[in-house]
Amino acid sequence: MSASIVLLATDADYVYDEVDAVLGGDHEVVRVHAGAEVLAAVRDHDPVLVVLDLQIGNMGGMAACLDLRLEERAERIPPQRVVMLLDRDADEFLAKRAEADAWIVKPIDALLLRRTARDVLADA
Asked: Which of 19, 34, 56, 97 matches a 20 to 30 Å C-alpha distance to 67?
């Protein structure tokens, strides 16, 4: 039986290291380095969860999340569960506008990320 996949979009190595340390025991964490790569990676890997860093190179987490939601509505991809990693509390507005299922503010709190991922997956 293969591990379920969590897709992480971040260009920061420390974010990947932290997410992999928290979720990697239960899931295979697949990383992309740019928001523009998220949609193709969703199609290739069929993740159970997508984790988007708000600040990613050429296409940030908000734009990547909106792109996923548009593709879902067009029925070109199945519904995705999305957790966004925010830089500050004020960015919660952006996560809501992007229709993320949940979000946490960096620095990443391991217990909070694990609980948030579990809760989002339970709602699937």
From this structure: 19
The domains of the chain are located at 4-119
Digit-coded pLDDT (tens) for 113-122: 999 999 999 9
CATH fold of 4-119 reads Rossmann fold (3.40.50)
What is the spatial distance between Cα 43 and Cα 71, in angstroms, rounded to a whole number?
11
pTM greater than the 0.90 cutoff:
yes
Q: Are 110 and 121 in contact (CB under 8 A)?
A: no
For residues 85-122, b (16+ Cβ closer than 10 Å) or e, as one string?
Answer: bbeeeebeebbeebebbbbbbbebeeeebeebbeebbe
Burial of 69 (0-12, 13-18, 19+ CB in 10 A): middle
DSSP-assigned letters across all residues of 6-45: EEEE-S-HHHHHHHHHHHTTTEEEEEESSGGGHHHHHHHH
pLDDT digits (tens, 9 = 90+) for 75-103: 999 999 999 999 999 999 999 999 999 99
SS3 label, residue 97: helix
